[in-house]
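subagent[fold] <- orchestrator: predict structure for attached chain, return tokens only, no commentary.
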Amino acid sequence: MAKTEKDVVWMGSSLKDLRGFPDEVKQVFGTAIYYAQRGGKHPQATPMKGHKGAGVLEIIEDHDRETYRCMYTVRYGNKIYVLHAFQKKSKKGIATPQADIDVINSRLTDVKRLEGVKS
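subagent[fold] -> orchestrator:
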């Protein structure tokens, strides 16, 4: 019996942004999302700092001296919500830039609203 796959919901511009990434990066992120759809966790998926209770997972992929990130959550409903996909532009270490954290937080708030979760 085939396992039921969870639906993927792309928040904001996350799908459009991901489509602009190099093919190798899209492959890694697509595979990670597929793992999540099947109830698994990709080996590169790690909990995003500061979002433990929200179950936000992060995939980081380096390609051609650039770093790409994709954040998603499996915590709400029977869906995978892709919150944000972006090319990291910050030159200040490995920290996620505040503007991107703000986007993730805003979209996570939208997910909670869609799922009827009280804050």
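orchestrator: received. Logging for downstream: The beta strands are 7-10, 46-47, 56-63, 66-73, 79-88. The chain has a mean pLDDT of 89.
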